[in-house]
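Re: weekly structure request thread

Next one in the queue (186 aa):
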Amino acid sequence: MTANEEQTMELEALRSIYEGDECFKELSSASFQYRVGNLGDPKAFLLEISWPEMYPELPPNISLNAFFNNSISSSVKQDIIAKLHEQAEANLGTAMVYTLFEWAKENQEELMENHQPVVGAVTLSMTENTVTSHTSVAKKKKKEQLSKSQKKKLADKTDNRGELPRGWNWVDVIKHLSKTGSKDEE
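Done, posted below.
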């Protein structure tokens, strides 16, 4: 069998195995992502595997460069990739994407044992934005506060339910039309 035929067969197998699995994503016919761990799990990571042209005779390209993995230190990423490359070398010549994904799932604890979440610039900037947005909300609330005289004027205009009467801000259309109409006649 040629490399393309083996890739086609593995692609069909991956599609049938992972059909409906929210952790699996087919990026293209030669590139796949798999989330190892649950979404809220701090030790979860997104594994990306892509096939070179001569796959499975050559090992696949393995990457952890997805945005999802920003909290993982580069040393832990390198360690995970090295261990996955060992598995890939052991399976050369055979379809191995499923094997690598499953091996990563089974060994997640071991792979992430040295993981200490990294606080990135993105998290820091999001925190600053949150603080800024809370401050601006507080300023808006201050602007919305009315003085005692403003409250009294507003209360005089409203009915017993606190609503303004219907048409309180309407333009006097009839008066306006009569003025423009009389100018046209002249």
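The first helix runs from residue 3 to 17. The radius of gyration is 32 Å.
Next request, please.
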